[in-house]
Amino acid sequence: MYGISIDVGTSGMREHAVDLSNNQIISTAITVRHPVPGANVMDHLTFCIEVQQDLAHRLLIDTANRLMHLLDIDLSKVERVAICGNPIQLSMFQNIETRDLAFVGEHALKARGVELQKRDATILNAVDLGLDLPDKCQIYVPPAIKHEIGADALAMMYKTKLMDRKEDVLVTDYGTNAEMALKVGDEIITGSAAAGPAIEGQHIKAGMLASPGAISDVNVELDWRCTVLDDDILAKEGDAVDPNTGVVMEQGAMHGRAVGVTGTGVIAAIAEGLKYGLIKMPHVTTLDNRIHLQDGIVLEENDIVEAAKAFGAMRAGHFTLLEHAGIKFEELDIMYMSGASGTYVDALKAQRVGLLPPSCSQIYQFGNTSLAMATDLVRDTELLDELQTLAKSIRANHIMFASDETFKKVFIQELAHWTEGMPIEMYNMMLRVSDIQPLPTTTKNAKVTRTVMRDIPDLGYKGLKVLRNIGLYIKGSFEGCTGCERCVKECPEDAIQVHQGGTSGFEISIASDLCNGTACMRCERACPKKCFKFRELEKGLVGS
Fold first, then answer.
1. What is the pLDDT of residues 396-430, one digit of tens each?
2. What does pTM read for this prediction?
3. How many domains is the chain built from?
4. Please, what is the angle between helix 53-70 and helix 41-50, to 10°?
5. DSSP label at residue 223
6. Radius of gyration of the chain from Cα atoms?
7. Which of 317, 331, 385, 466 has the largest count of CB atoms under 10 Å?
């Protein structure tokens, strides 16, 4: 009999097949994008509320089914599934209410007729959700800690053993939604920074998630030596190149195999560019204003500014947790990093660009804690009760960064620093005016401990399969459409096609994983007849 563990992340989905007779991982399958339109978790939530939640649910379930068929096991012998993710992703997967996650306060919920969901540990029937699994197959869903603090945050704390530490510890899952928790004594203070997709290599022109062919690191010797992920997503030596021209100075084992750059590679390139004077924010000082990596892959000024905004959001989040806890940077010595970016990134380079507090002298890098906890749960279902007990025992306070005054004040200075070149001295002066502690100007020489070599430590003896094209489309036909294809030309992600057919004579088809969703809407604004209504695509069909 088999089990399947699933991580529904903000940027994609990952699955393990597990042999329940010996608890060994058989195989792994991952996507490189999320199937629901949008670049971050708030886009996904908006899609649920403004377009249709059933459609978001179907997109997730269809993607999960596609991944299951890549695991190379007999799906008729799957006995159980365990899943993990943040509250929005798990709610979409289960097709339960999401509006209570969008509005804060009892009055706001009551005015909209929305009831607060409990989100405790639960067991569901796989077939009822639409999964291609046997009738008796059950899905185990771990609990949220509180309404805003989901199973992914619980996984981050559980797998890092955060609660066992006596010292003050900061843990961050480096991703699009950047969950973070600060342990001070017996209390946990949490938050999540909408860092944006650049932290995982998205919205970067040559960007990609951590998968085979991604440039994951850059190290400066005489030239810039690239590191590239191989077919087992292990970091291997790439080419040494001239960053001004891209000329290969010395070929590496991964020569010719890079197809893009992941978020960790972007972080490394910016850290080294700043150190060696090729970047003076917000500008690149090379002759063509681009940083050249191997195999023709380049970073442009817009890419660097986009990534720097993510750095600013992360550091503003860390500032906010410390300020609410009433502790200084100098009192924080230990940092835990999780998630794909938290695994592959050079921690010291990340610290140089502000992704870790400069005061930390001990840094521990963990892998994908969400998938790891789901895998523990599929191996031992009695863990579900233990996780529920743990979730209820954690004394946690959640800070909504979007409405927090400290976060807003720090983030304004971060934007000025990264997008306008504000000196750190001016940055700190402005923080003092707001009665916020200054950022230390010296960085400790931290000891870095890597607990895993990749974010998914064990791929199984059958290895990794990557679903690059999810193959799901949202379709709609609009009265008055002339088939002019202005929407096609305007789409920045090449997600739209126009075909003959439909009630109007033309049918619009949108690749769900490429679409930026309600945060973009350039397709709708470009329509000369004003007949394209993105929010009416719920009338369309999902299929390959």
1. 888 989 889 999 999 999 999 999 999 999 999 99
2. 0.85
3. 3
4. 130
5. S
6. 23
7. 317
